[in-house]
Design brief:
Blueprint: E1 7-18, E2 21-33, E3 38-42, H1 49-56, E4 65-75, E5 81-83, H2 89-95, E6 100-103, H3 107-110, H4 117-129, H5 133-146, H6 152-156, H7 165-177, E7 183-187, H8 195-212, E8 215-220, H9 223-229, E9 232-237, E10 240-246, H10 247-252, H11 257-264, E11 300-315, E12 320-336, E13 340-344, H12 351-358, E14 366-371, E15 374-375, H13 381-387, E16 391-394, H14 398-401, H15 408-418, H16 424-437, H17 454-466, E17 472-476, H18 484-501, E18 504-509, H19 512-518, E19 521-526, E20 529-535, H20 536-541, H21 546-554, E21 578-580, E22 590-594, E23 597-600
Parallel strand pairs: 3-8, 3-9, 6-7, 7-8, 13-18, 13-19, 16-17, 17-18
Antiparallel strand pairs: 1-2, 1-4, 4-5, 9-10, 11-12, 11-14, 12-21, 14-15, 19-20, 20-23, 22-23
Helix pairs in contact: 4-5, 5-7, 7-8, 15-16, 15-17, 16-17, 17-18
């Protein structure tokens, strides 16, 4: 490591003008980034970590922000040190993308939907490097190979919507690395990705950093990712830096209370070993926690047998069905009263479709769904409406599932009003009790969704799902978009409600550490089938199917001494789930490797 930093942030203060006067995004922050090192900036939503990085790119001004104070010193390629805070935007255009690259959180919004991948990759090369078209295209191909995109020649001609989330993120990384920047800023680049793709992208960024000597500023709220990537860590809280130090020191000997609570809220893989039942997390600074395990019962509530859901692929002049997407293929499981079954797997494995098929939000092609003795598949629309009293869903994005024009109390009261369960003052009391249940102040009842944080909105979604006293709740990635400490509180709330009300959950997630914390049973899905199923302890401590083993190997562990390298990861590309209309898949056959622990025998391509 050289003794002169590439970037120095000195006493940075950023303000945003609002109707109620200026709001401070970053109060007084200073830190350095040296060549060839990764500095991770951690903190929760609103801590100012993204604002710091956008200030360095001078992009914060396009979002209504203003650099009110401080210096942003950057060591340019020509050896001159420049204060980026004083530069005009024309000069900044030359630095952006050329000397400072940026990877944004959401790859779909970072790419232009109307241009091909090739056009977007070559644009920066032609502007900054004065390359001709042929040279730029050759370099673009080389970049796609570097980020391990299969069939790069074909990808150059494709549009962003034709690529998966992980592929799109690789394209964004290739674009950021195209001009070999001296500093790479990565703003939550893996938050929206699956475990396996996240593991590959982290290993890829680490390899590119070593090969090119680029300095990396990595912004995240995931402490396991920090343990995997960081050389040094800067912890931010409410616009201020509260702690900074080498990664080992931050994990082994944190000094600030906020850092300690952040680390306490991280579910760690292997924490639940030797514990027979799920139990809530111990949160720092929360007194009187109810940390009793949740045993549940052995009485079956939901029985699913041979569930199959396919989507037609239309094509040709007459829009005929030319093929089918086999989203869920011959899936069977049971859920006991008061217990949680988790379905895990990567995007596109069919876990969300399975959850929606059970509630018949998506119509299955075949299969039996029996909820407490009621055959859901045989119900007409009015029977299904009545059955939904007993089964509710919590969606991944609480903002999209709430009505922005309705007050929160109306949204929670709506299901009860629709079913005629309560009215007048009784309805008011019930809504108030539900707000108490999900630990939200009653004063929030008159608020609108946009006035709430992500975690608070998710609590409202939980309160609304509880309004009808259901027996089963399907939770579809309900905590994946939340900050670590908020996620821990919402998970604890869900387990507390399970213990009190005897709820059963079908918990759909791709986060293995969270699944280990909340589950009684786990089913691992791959290409529409459950490839391994059994009690939580057996799946996590003795995974038998090669896909489950690969999934476990990919999970980042919140310990800087247990870093993974690219050679630890061995993922095969997932085959296409689209088959011709005459394709008849084999039924799922299982082998019981130990009591209650099953693995799939049918060849599913892994």
């Amino acid at each position: 490591m050289l003794d002169h930093p590439i970037a120095e942030i000195r006493k940075l203060r950023v303000e945003f003008q609002t109707k109620d006067g200026p709001v401070v995004g970053v109060e007084d922050v200073s830190f350095d980034v040296y060549p060839g090192e990764t500095v991770c900036i951690v903190g929760e939503s609103g801590s100012g970590k993204s604002v710091s990085s956008l200030s360095l790119m001078r992009l914060v001004e396009f979002g209504g922000g203003k650099i009110a104070n401080g210096e942003l010193l950057f060591d340019r390629r020509d050896g001159h040190e420049t204060n980026l805070a004083d530069l005009d935007q024309d000069l900044m255009k030359r630095i952006r993308g050329n000397e400072i690259g940026m990877i944004f959180q959401e790859p779909m919004t970072a790419l232009n939907p109307v241009f091909t991948v090739g056009r977007q990759l070559t644009e920066g090369l032609r502007v900054h490097m004065n390359m001709n078209r042929a040279a730029a295209e050759a370099r673009a191909l080389e970049l796609l190979r570097q980020v391990r995109i299969p069939e790069p020649e074909r990808r150059l001609k494709q549009y962003p919507h034709e690529l998966s989330g992980g592929m799109r993120q690789r394209v964004v990384i290739a674009m950021a690395m195209a001009c070999e920047p001296r500093l790479l800023i990565a703003d939550e680049p893996t938050t929206a990705l699956d475990v396996t793709i996240q593991a590959e992208i982290l290993a890829l960024m680490d390899r590119l950093k070593r090969e090119t000597g680029t300095a990396v500023m990595f912004i995240t709220h995931d402490m396991a990712v920090v343990a995997q990537m960081a050389d040094r860590v800067v912890v931010m809280y409410r616009g201020n830096k509260v702690e900074e130090g080498p990664v080992e020191q931050i994990f082994e000997n944190p000094t600030h209370d906020y850092t300690k609570s952040l680390l306490a809220a991280v579910p760690k893989l292997g924490e639940m070993r030797d514990k027979p039942c799920p139990e809530p997390m111990r949160l720092l600074g929360v007194e009187g926690q109810n940390l009793k395990p949740v045993p549940g019962t052995q009485e079956v509530l939901l029985r699913v047998k041979g569930l199959t859901t396919r989507f037609p692929v239309k094509g040709g002049f007459l829009r005929r069905t030319v093929a089918n997407v086999h989203a869920v293929e011959d899936v069977s499981f049971t859920i006991n009263r008061g217990q949680t079954l988790s379905l895990v797997g990567e995007s596109g494995c069919g876990k969300s479709t399975a959850g929606r098929s059970i509630l018949r939000l998506v119509e299955p092609l075949a299969g039996e769904v029996d909820l407490d003795g009621l055959d859901i598949m045989k119900l007409d629309s009015s029977g299904l409406r009545r059955a939904r009293l007993d089964m509710q869903m919590i969606f991944q994005d609480p903002f999209a599932s709430l009505n922005p024009k309705m007050k929160l109390e109306e949204q929670v009261a709506e299901p009860m009003r629709n079913y005629g369960i309560a009215s007048g003052s009784e309805l008011q009391d019930r809504v108030a009790n539900l707000f108490d249940r999900v630990h939200l102040p009653r004063s929030f009842m008159r608020r609108y969704p946009h006035e709430m944080s992500g975690g608070q909105r998710q609590r409202i979604a939980i309160a609304r799902a509880l309004a009808l006293n259901p027996k089963l709740i399907v939770s579809d990635e309900a905590v994946s978009a939340l900050d670590v400490s908020v996620q821990a509180q919402v998970l604890n709330l869900m387990m507390e409600l399970q213990a009190e009300l005897g709820l059963s959950y079908l918990f759909i997630s791709h986060d293995m550490a969270v699944v280990e914390r909340v589950s009684h049973y786990v089913g691992v899905m791959y290409l529409g089938r459950i490839v391994e199923m059994g009690p939580r302890a057996r799946i996590f401590e003795n995974p038998q199917h090669p896909y489950t083993q690969a999934l476990m190997a990919a999970v980042p562990i919140a310990d800087p001494h247990k870093r993974k390298s690219e050679k630890d990861l061995n993922f095969k590309p997932i085959p296409s789930p689209i088959h011709p209309t005459d394709h008849e898949p084999e039924p799922s056959r299982y082998d019981e490797v130990e009591p209650g622990h099953f693995i799939l025998l049918t060849d599913s391509g892994y």
